[in-house]
Each structure stands twice: as C-alpha cells, then as structure tokens.
C-alpha cells in the first residue's frame, strides 16, 4: 500500500489532535479532582488558583512578597489555609510543636527545589545537606557537629574575631564622619552591615580571607550570594521543575558564580591547616564515617550553609534594628542613655553584660518579631512511607506539606496585641500587664531539632554590634529618604532580602 503525502498529513494532524484532546482531558481531570470534595484537603479554605497549582505561588514569589501574600490569605480565610494542591499554611501556636518540634515532621518537598549549587561535585548533595535534608535520622547525624560547633567552648573561639570586626566596622564609619563636612557622614548602613557580616563569617567559617569592609565587594561575592537566592526562592514552590530551571543559562549566572565560590572556599579550607579553631575545625572533629576528613560533598554543603546563614541573615536583622531605631528615635535615645550608664565613654564593652540589658533585648526581639530572617518557608511533611501524621485534631495525609509562616504568626493579634503591626518593644517587658505576648508563637530562629544552630552566636553578634554602633554614633535618615521605602524593598527570598538604608551618622563624642 502506498501512502500519499496527503494521507501522511492527515495522519499527523490526527495524532496532534488526539494528543491535544488527551492533554486537555488530563489537565481538566486533575483540576476537577483538586477542586472536588473528594480531595483529602477539600475542607480547608483557600483561593481556587492555589488549590489548582503551585505555579501561582511561584509566580507570587517572583516579586518577593510571598510573606505579605500569606498574611493576606490568613486574614481572609483563617488560621489554616490551603495554599497549594497538597499544601496547607498553618498559623496556630498550639500546633507549632507538633509540626516543627522533636516529635514533629521532617522537612517537606519545598527543600528539593531550593538547592543553589548545581555542581557535578554535589551528586550526594541531598544526603549531606543539613538545611535541606528530609530524612530525620540523617538530619540528626548532620546536626550533631553543628551543635558541637556552637557550644559554650567554641563560642569563645569566635568572640575574638567578632570584637575585632566590630572595631573595624566602627572605625570605618568614624573615618567617614571625620572626613565629611560638619562631621556628618552619609552611608548605606545596610551595605556596611553586609560587608561586616560577610567578613566575620569568613573569619568564623573559613579562617579569614574576606575583606569587604576594607576593599568593598570588588569580587561580587556578596552580590552573587544575594542574587543566587532569587531563583531557588521561586523554584522551591515547583520542585519538579527546579532541575530544568537550574539548567537554563539565562538568569542562573549568579547561582553558578556563587556555587563556584562556595566550592572554592570549601576546597581551600579543607586543604589548609587550622591556625585557629574556626567553625570548620569543629565540624571536622568527628565525621559520620569515622575518617579524618569529612566527605567533600559534605564540606561543600557546610560551606554554602555557613556563607548564607552566617552573613545574609545577620546583616538583614541588624539593618532592620537600625531602621526601627531611627524611625522611632525615642528608643534610640533611651538605649544610648542605658548603654552610657553601663559602659562609660572609652570603656570596653563587657560581653557578659549584654544579655542582661533588658531594653536592648526587647528592641532586638521586636525587630525579629516584625521582620523574621525566614519570613515564610518553614515547611514540613509526613515522613515518606508513614501514611500521614496526626497534628492536634488534624490528620495530615502523606504527600501533604505544611508550612508555618513566621511573618504572619508574629503579627497575629491572637498572640501579639495590642497593635501587632507596630514596633513596640515594651511588649517584651516582663512587668507589662494587660498585653498579649505569646512567646510560643515567636519563632524567628525556627523551632525544634531543625532550628538555627547558630542562634547563641547570632544573638551575641546582634547585641555586641548594636551596642558598638549606638554608643558611638547618632543616626537619622538621610535627607529625602522615604522611610516607608525600606519595607517596600524587603523581599522574601527564603531569607529576608533588603535594599538600601541611607543614614546620616555623626560621632556622639569627640574622638
């Protein structure tokens, strides 16, 4: 039988038509099921578009305002909202332990779409990635050396670098003031905090080598790190497409550059002798396989985590604290008066006293409440093969993810009132009566076995650096700056990303 060109053309068109009909029918059936009362999450309210596909959430994440979107959803629908075909967002302090706690759930699928370093050397990345590991047993194994690295004894090893970098930071700002007309310096304080925290992270994790305070970001290390977080903050919502997204050359340059930087630092640190007990010294004391050195994929994973968690989050929190102090200058004046009494001019800062300064702690806590370092993406899911997990009076079926958004939880009037949207440090005062301040709903460092291992160091860093800055300088917004712009520029990139914060600085005393 001879096939003519017209017959082949007709056959080809028929195949295309059949494929189109099949695809449309398949998609229609998926949509119908996800919106139907037969779906296991059908009883939970939420926008139809969220119930249909997580692509909508990824689209919201492009703009970096997912934290505001989640807050709006909970205002409209209540404490439990269906934010994906198989995902719930829960804002209920009573359920936090059951979700994030010791007997809670392992991390959810969101983490599969968040990997930043697409390197051939990361074939075992998921096995060695502490922050993204979804196996509770393996996570506990990976967490042990991090817990040890931030114990009381190692903390003392980091203090020397912290004090030195704090002094360098204050000196750099002092030079700007003294070289400026009338002694008034004009700086983007957020940028200087980024330089400072990046340098300190380099000292703490890699034995030094980063000098952004001195030289600026001439190698674009910090810039690449911040830009590298953008695509993962989007692809985390559609992990099935993450590998394809990472393979696209356009727009992934910062991810590749940051990945190469992390690998280079891991190689450098793993091959050099320790001159002091930095973070990697403590992480390498004991490995999971009993060898002298940890496996290289684990070194890379630790390097990536140390760079992001040790620099970007701290810089954002420090910048937010300054923003609120300058926006509400009565707290800046009160803090200066308190610190002047405790640490007279030219006297050294007693680090042991810092945790006992009530006003300083209240100000830090309030900034962390309003702008937590991780605004939304604390996701958990029942363990694979478990069938599901009972959470309070709920049952979470296997295959369902649960996210707790700290930004929304921290501003919930059920847990923080009056005026949960306002910067009001007095809510943290023990003596305050007639206010709601539910500390079980305060999770800026996450909660449970996957909480921030470096919290003790982070709090010491926040207290010391703010004390150093506030003692030495008066601050106000630069002329023409709209203070509302700061919060408009904040973006949810898994960790909180910031814009510029133009500040006028002047020395408080003759130096």
Automatic annotation (TrEMBL):
Keywords: Heme, Iron, Metal-binding, Monooxygenase, Oxidoreductase
Name under which the protein is recorded: Cytochrome P450
CDD domains: CYP67-like
PANTHER family: CYTOCHROME P450 (PTHR24305), P450, PUTATIVE (EUROFUNG)-RELATED (PTHR24305:SF187)
Recorded family membership: Belongs to the cytochrome P450 family.
Annotated metabolic or biological route of this protein: Secondary metabolite biosynthesis
Domain of life: Eukaryota
UniProt cofactor(s): heme
SUPFAM superfamilies: Cytochrome P450
């Amino acid at each position: 039988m001879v096939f003519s060109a017209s017959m082949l053309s007709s056959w080809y068109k028929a195949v295309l038509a059949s494929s189109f009909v099949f695809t449309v029918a398949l998609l229609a059936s998926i949509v119908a099921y996800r919106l139907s009362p037969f779906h296991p999450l059908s009883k939970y309210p939420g926008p139809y578009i969220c119930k249909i596909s997580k692509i909508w959430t990824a689209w919201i994440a492009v703009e970096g305002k997912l934290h505001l979107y989640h807050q709006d959803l909970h205002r409209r629908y209540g404490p439990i909202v269906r934010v994906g075909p198989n995902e719930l967002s829960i804002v209920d302090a009573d359920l936090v332990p059951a979700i994030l706690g010791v007997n809670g759930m392992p991390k959810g699928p969101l983490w599969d779409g968040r990997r930043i370093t697409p390197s051939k050397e990361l074939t075992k990345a998921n096995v060695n990635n502490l922050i993204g590991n979804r196996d509770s047993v393996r996570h506990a194994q990976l967490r042990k050396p991090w817990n040890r690295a931030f114990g009381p004894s190692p903390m003392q090893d980091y203090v020397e670098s912290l004090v030195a970098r704090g002094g360098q930071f204050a000196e750099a700002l002092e030079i700007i003031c003294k070289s400026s007309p009338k002694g008034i310096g004009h700086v983007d304080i957020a940028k200087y905090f980024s330089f400072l925290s990046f340098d300190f992270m380099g000292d703490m994790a890699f034995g030094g080598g980063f000098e952004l305070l001195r030289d600026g970001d001439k190698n674009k290390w910090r810039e690449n790190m911040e830009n590298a977080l953008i695509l993962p903050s989007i692809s985390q919502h559609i992990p099935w497409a993450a590998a394809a997204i990472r393979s696209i050359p356009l727009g992934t340059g910062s991810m590749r550059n940051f990945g190469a930087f992390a690998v280079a630092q891991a190689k450098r640190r793993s091959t050099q002798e320790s001159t002091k007990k930095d973070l990697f010294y403590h992480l390498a004391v004991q490995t999971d396989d009993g060898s002298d050195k940890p496996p290289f994929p684990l070194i890379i994973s630790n390097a990536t985590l140390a760079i992001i968690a040790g620099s970007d989050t701290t810089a954002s929190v420090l910048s937010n604290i300054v923003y609120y102090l300058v926006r509400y200058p009565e707290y800046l004046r009160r803090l200066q008066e308190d610190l002047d009494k405790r640490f007279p001019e030219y006297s050294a800062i007693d680090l042991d006293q810092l945790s006992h300064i009530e006003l300083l702690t209240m100000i830090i806590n309030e900034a962390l409440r309003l702008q937590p370092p991780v605004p939304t993406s604390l996701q958990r899911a029942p363990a694979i093969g478990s069938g599901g997990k009972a959470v309070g009076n709920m049952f979470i079926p296997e295959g369902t993810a649960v996210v707790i958004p700290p930004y929304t939880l921290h501003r919930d009037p059920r847990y923080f009132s009056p005026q949960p949207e306002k910067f009001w440090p007095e809510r943290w005062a023990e003596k305050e009566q007639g206010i709601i301040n539910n500390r079980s709903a305060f999770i800026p460092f996450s909660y449970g076995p996957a909480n921030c291992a470096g919290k003790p160091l982070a709090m010491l860093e926040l207290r010391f650096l703010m004390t150093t800055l506030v003692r030495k300088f008066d601050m106000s917004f630069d002329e023409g700056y709209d203070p509302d712009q700061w919060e408009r520029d904040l973006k949810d990139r898994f960790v909180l990303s910031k814009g510029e914060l133009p500040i006028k600085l002047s020395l408080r005393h003759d130096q």
